[in-house]
Specification:
The protein is α+β, with helices and mostly antiparallel strands. The chain has 16 helices and 37 strands. Strands 1, 2, 8, 9, 10, 11, 15, 16, 17 and 20 form a 10-stranded antiparallel beta sheet that branches. Strands 31, 32, 33, 34, 35, 36 and 37 form a 7-stranded mixed beta sheet that branches. A 5-stranded antiparallel beta sheet has the order 7-6-12-19-18, covered by helices on one side.
């Protein structure tokens, strides 16, 4: 796909955001979709990351403040840079003067929450000493956020429109190191009002949440072709330091501009007072003489006149460039020849923060148009509101410090973020197995993860290091595999090959994919007796080893066998395909016959006979003889995500792994035993992600018997696991129940108790929560294979959003006499199409393969086949239904 960087032939009118507009009746931008609004009682915890994929972010708070400055290659929860000698944090101010000369100046933020009122040193809210707006409302459809501000004493109504571009299938356009801050002023009076908006930034290069220090930092005013403002760098911070780089505060506004580069000698006066009085006097900044200070303040003031009954706006850009990302597994000096500095992809695309500002300002209209088109299309679809919220808001994780890209463009991820560092390194296979946002929106990035897993992290035996070290020369240093992680990687390889149609990728990686399956059959491996059932020492996402057959590992394995079968056939390895099919068939029957207890699947705990029965890299030998002595096991518990392999198999179109009736009974049991309307009476011996009267699904319930010491997290609740169970319910036609479970999650992330843009597990912005995107194909019945060119939807009328990772758009399905009409629109990327199917109803094969590009559409009529599908598009006989890949289900 052509990068947005090449599209700079834009009209010059976008350089000024001060043009008069017709007065808007709504307090929000009518051209921006709004998915959810938050009143003042639900703004305290809101922190929406503003930044691109792999660039770091600064977060927009619910009242319009900027918090959590996480630009310097690591997390920074709670970090707000401030000047050393007078405590001013980054902020934006508005001064308004009416025709009679009366002027009012306000901080462009809403009221402070009561929780911030008192501490030993007074109010803890940043910039609490500035007069602020009396009321605020936060509205969002990620990544578009709006904050409406009002105050009886302020003659202008103000609104902040803030975002960072997010364009499916275009990782460069979605990976810009910028935060867009547009202030829209509306004059409801009959006379013009003079105004001025001032933005303040602190040059904190060299410092972040984890420490460091500023030294020799300087601010300079610069004029560019598309932007003007303050460029921030450092002459004293070591250029090799992780916190070294550049920042910029710029505006696209034309006309008059005043600025402030730093305070002078801090010992000569109160500069909070001097800065405030300077701006509020006339809305201009009289730049003081730059002094020898650390953490200097930079400010821009943009004057404008807002005519009667009209609206004007000013756009600011905050951009950054910090190139020295360090590896997450540093070498001790002298232990290896690899450098610890691995760099950033985004800093290879720009020379510095000023270059990022100039390029972004020039392309901003197109970037905003494409972002709004995506979000509006998604929000206008017929998905339930809570699914839109869960799927869209969790995309913020891709742009948090959980994720980064190395200069070669590869995507890597922690599991989540601690307050000041990444949490659990290595693109952990068993955590990243769960997320579906990356492959369905940015297929090229997902493909880089498959390349890392098989081309670099798989050793000669076939063991995939479930935590990859960096740089990639050290990828297999963590010679430890996770049973669920490794099997999930094989399923993801099949999925990403199907979505891309990239046979070259399959052929290149197949030898290692095959090895990864064969590793299971080695002596002491996960299926050493080669019967299709995992029985060995199975390290897994519960941070322990399960011993003996269990549903969680068992279904991942069955899914990997089915994936291996399909890929083997494609490369012409029929013997291996037959082996995989045989093991799958025998393993599936055994699990149904031996692990299903009539309500759900259980874990048969088995102790290895000797240490030789545990292959190196699979887990540790427990050194006990009695199964009752084994600790950290699931046992007879009802596990919330015991069907995760089936969840992924449906996403991949691989059909059923075990009996459909047992699947549905298990899901009903999870609802019965794991879901609770209140946790007031629940004892939790671990971390608390749900409290009080909140509703959720417990990690494991024990209605009959429980091991003395089960796996570590059995009393907890974590959203990624809940999404798997809820979406599996939707996949099986239990739609209302599944939606209720998703609603339970989002009720907890309500802005008052937790941020709607930060679903935590072991850390903030936890990758597993992006499993929420799988609800989209589950509800629309969407399935696509670029290998066959076939796209499938449920046979139900509606407007269905779809995305393949390489193209995206909308399908409008309407009932027609004798069948259904489908109009497929491609709004981004390129789509190869040979056939269009409405599941269970009918199929239309095109005379010739078509390649549809953005802006193109295809209309077809599909005649009904005779069986009337239910609302999910499933025919009455699930057991004999064929998959979208053309293979019979069990």
């Amino acid at each position: 796909m052509q990068s947005w960087l090449s599209g700079f032939a834009l009209p010059p009118r976008h350089l000024t955001r001060l043009k008069v507009k017709t007065m808007r009746k709504s307090k929000f931008n009518p051209n921006w979709p709004v998915l959810k609004t938050y009143d003042e009682a639900h703004q305290f915890r809101i922190a929406m990351p503003l930044g691109g994929i792999g660039t770091g972010t600064v977060s927009l708070g619910g009242r319009g403040d900027l918090r959590d400055w996480e630009l310097t290659n690591r997390p920074g929860k709670g970090f707000r840079p401030f000047t050393h000698y007078f405590v001013t944090y980054p902020l934006f101010l508005l001064r308004a003067q009416t025709a009679d000369g009366k002027a009012v100046t306000r901080l462009l933020e809403g009221p402070i929450d009561g929780a911030e009122y008192e501490s030993a040193s007074g109010c803890t809210a940043a910039n609490h000493g500035y007069p602020r707006f009396a009321h605020s409302t936060f509205a969002a459809a990620y990544p578009l956020a709006q904050v409406a501000l009002s105050d009886e004493s302020m003659p202008l109504q103000a609104r902040l429109e803030s975002f960072n571009p997010l364009v499916p299938c275009d990782a460069d356009a979605s990976g810009i190191p910028a935060a867009v801050m547009r202030y829209v002023l509306t004059n409801p009076t009959n006379k013009p009002i003079k105004a001025s908006i001032c933005g303040v930034m602190i040059n904190y290069i060299g410092l972040d949440k984890s420490g460091g220090a500023t030294k020799g930092n300087r601010n300079r005013f610069r004029k560019g072709k598309a932007a003007r403002g303050i460029f921030m760098d450092s002459q004293g911070v070591e250029p090799a330091d992780e916190r070294w780089g550049t920042m910029a505060l710029t505006t696209t506004a034309a006309g008059e501009l005043s600025y402030w580069l730093s305070e002078s000698d801090p010992l000569k006066g109160n500069y909070v007072l001097k800065f405030w009085e300077d701006f509020k006097t006339d809305g201009r900044l009289d730049n003081p003489e730059p002094g020898n200070v650390e953490g200097p303040m930079g400010a821009l003031a943009v004057p404008l006149t807002v005519p009667a009954k009209s609206t004007r706006e000013v756009t600011f850009l905050i951009t950054w460039h910090f190139p020295n990302r360090q590896t997450w597994t540093p070498c001790k000096e002298g232990t290896c020849s690899c450098q610890n500095t691995i760099g950033n992809y985004y800093t290879e695309q720009y020379m510095d923060a000023w270059d990022a500002a100039e390029k972004t300002a020039r392309a901003l209209p197109a970037l905003e148009r494409d972002t709004v088109q995506f979000v509006k299309t998604f929000c206008d679809s017929d998905l339930p509101a809570v699914v839109k919220e869960a799927a869209l808001f969790n995309l913020s994780t891709l742009r948090s410090q959980t994720c980064f890209r190395t200069p070669d463009g590869r995507l890597f991820g922690f599991e989540g973020c601690s307050d000041a560092c990444g949490c659990c390194h290595g693109s952990c296979t068993h955590v990243w197995n769960y997320e579906l946002a990356t492959p369905l929106l940015f297929g090229g990035l997902a493909a880089t993860m498959r390349d890392v897993e098989f081309a670099h992290a798989t050793n000669a035996e076939g063991l995939i290091s479930f935590r990859v070290n960096l740089p990639l020369q050290r990828a297999t240093e963590t010679a430890w595999g996770a049973a669920d992680g490794q099997m999930g990687c094989i399923m993801k390889m099949y999925r990403d090959w199907q979505l891309s149609g990239d046979d070259a990728m399959l052929n290149r990686l197949w030898p290692k994919v095959k090895k990864a399956l064969e590793f299971c059959w080695l002596p002491g491996g996960w299926d050493a007796d080669k019967d299709g059932v995992m029985e060995g020492s199975q390290h897994n996402t519960m941070d322990c080893e399960y011993f003996g057959p269990n549903p969680q590992m068992g279904l991942w394995y069955l899914g990997a066998l089915r994936s291996g079968e399909e890929m083997a056939r494609r490369v012409g390895d029929e013997a291996f395909a037959a082996t995989c099919r045989d093991l799958f068939t025998r393993g599936s029957r055994w699990i149904d016959a031996n692990l299903f207890n009539g309500e759900y699947y259980i874990h048969q705990i088995r102790v290895p006979a000797s240490a030789e029965d545990v292959r190196p890299g699979t887990g540790s030998f427990p050194n006990v003889k009695d199964p009752d002595q084994l600790t950290r096991q699931l046992g007879e518990g009802c596990l919330v995500d015991q069907l995760v392999g089936q969840f992924m198999a449906h996403v991949c179109g691989l059909g059923y792994l075990v009996k459909p009736a047992n699947i549905r009974k298990t899901l009903a049991s999870i609802l019965k035993y794991n879901r609770r309307d209140s946790f007031r009476d629940h004892f939790n011996c671990m971390r608390g992600y749900v409290v009080g009267d909140e509703a959720a699904m417990l990690m494991a319930a024990y209605p009959y018997s429980r091991p003395t010491q089960p796996f570590p997290y059995f009393t907890e609740v974590m959203t990624g696991f809940e999404y798997v169970a809820a979406i599996n319910m939707i996949q099986e036609g239990m739609t209302a129940k599944g939606l209720q479970c998703i609603q339970d999650i989002r009720n907890r992330y309500d802005g008052r108790k937790r941020s709607p843009f930060d679903e935590a597990e072991c850390g903030h912005h936890y990758a597993r929560a992006m499993a929420s995107w799988a609800a989209v194909p589950a509800l629309t019945g969407f399935l696509y294979s670029a290998v066959t060119g076939k796209m499938t939807f449920a046979a139900k009328a509606g407007q269905h959003f779809w995305s393949t990772g390489y193209a995206w758009g909308v399908a409008t399905v309407k009932s027609a006499r004798g069948g259904m009409n489908v109009e497929l629109k491609v709004l981004g990327g390129k789509l190869k199409l040979k056939a269009l199917e409405l599941s269970g109803a009918g199929e239309k094969t095109l005379n010739a393969a078509r390649e549809l590009v953005a802006g193109k559409s295809l209309a077809v009529e599909i005649a009904r086949r005779g069986c009337f599908p239910d609302r999910l598009g499933r025919a009455a006989s699930d057991a004999t239904k064929t998959t979208a890949r053309g293979k019979p289900r069990r």
